[in-house]
Specification:
Blueprint: H1 4-16, H2 23-34, H3 38-60, H4 71-84, E1 88-90, H5 95-99, H6 102-113, H7 119-122, E2 127-129
Parallel strand pairs: 1-2
Length: 131
């Protein structure tokens, strides 16, 4: 098993860095590969692009107050949906456009949170029209 003190040092460096700074994650990914943790290494390499995509999606959506949705609200809403089945109302002219992105959404969500949505949840988006 890899040295846990080294792992903690990497995780501290990642936490201290701005989310967009890929270098600490990339170095950590190389270390993970060297220690046989290839799946987590791959997730770390894809983390920043996935979070960037999620942040851009959130900024394209308007919440119930007609303000752009925050990244934190998007992640929290998806998490609530997986735990309770609750939906989130949005003022959207065309929910179909958002639903077209659900595959990419759930893929990016898994990379960022480490939580995989069950097949039944991935088939639907958790937004409903607040018309």
């Amino acid at each position: 098993m890899a040295d846990e003190s080294v792992r903690r040092a990497f995780l501290s460096a990642i936490e201290a860095a701005h989310w967009e700074h890929e270098l600490p994650r990339l170095v950590y990914a190389d270390w993970l590969d060297e220690n046989g943790e290839h799946e987590e290494a791959d997730r770390q390499r894809r983390y920043v692009p996935a979070e960037r995509w999620l942040r851009e999606l959130a900024g394209q959506l308007n919440d119930e107050t007609c303000e752009p949705m925050s990244y934190e609200t998007l992640i929290g809403t998806a998490t609530d949906y997986l735990q309770t089945g609750s939906h989130y109302s949005l003022f959207l002219g065309d929910l179909d456009e958002v639903n077209k992105q659900m595959g990419e959404f759930w893929k990016s969500f898994k990379i960022v949170t480490g939580v995989a949505a069950p097949d039944s949840a991935r088939e639907r988006m958790f937004f409903v029209c607040h018309c």
